[in-house]
Amino acid sequence: MPRFVVFVGPRGSGKTTLGHALGRVLDAPVYDTDRMVEDLAGEPLSRLWEREGEEAFRAVESRALETLLTLSPGVVSTGGGIVLRQENRQNLRRLGYVIYLHVPEEQLLSRLASGSERRPRLRQGVSLEEEVRQVILERDPLYREVADRVLSVGGASIATTLEEILSVLRPLSPTIGRIP
Ligand SMILES: Nc1ncnc2c1ncn2[C@@H]1O[C@H](COP(=O)(O)OP(=O)(O)O)[C@@H](O)[C@H]1O
Ligand SMILES: O=C(O)C1=C[C@@H](OP(=O)(O)O)[C@@H](O)[C@H](O)C1
Ligand SMILES: [Mg+2]
Q1: Is this complex scored with an ipTM above 0.90?
Q2: Which ligand has the minimum distance to the alpha carbon of residue 17?
Q3: What global pTM score does this model have?
Q4: Phi first, then psi: what are they for 10, rounded to 5°?
């Protein structure tokens, strides 16, 4: 697999879930920049964020992304805010084929509201609904800027979305590697 397949998109769009699923099917290494940040920082993401704030987290996130450029190609699940920095947008494009998982706001909201995982809030003093609205407004153009492909996957099951991803990747197999 000579190049990476990279998922970008907002929180709850399924980057982590689909990254693992795709890695299994392709028998390729799976990287999640959030887990790489935790390894580099030596503490859970939520604690780093709480203790040192978002900017400190972003600095480690950029280092994690730079590290990826030196690793064996595989599937990369990014954190939803990785596109905020220009240097990261450049590095994402260098890594390989970037897929933006586009999911309607209502669906993101219901996944985030029901998820058991602890995710730090991105906006203070507003409802989760307003946070999701603001964050999408700010980042949607940035996801589109880095994406080779925008996949609208709202409403589809994990299995159906995985099939759709595989059908997008198949024609690219000369640069991505063998796709089943
Ligand atoms: N069709 C779907 N595709 C991806 N995730 C889904 C889907 N339906 C429900 N989910 C759930 O939504 C959540 C997505 O979270 P996650 O994979 O952590 O997203 P991200 O890494 O983009 O924040 C998971 O709990 C997953 O089980
Ligand atoms: O959108 C964001 O700014 C963030 C998304 C999270 O990753 P997921 O998109 O995988 O939830 C994680 O990087 C951190 O909590 C910040
Ligand atoms: Mg994730």
Answers
A1: yes
A2: 1
A3: 0.96
A4: -70, 170
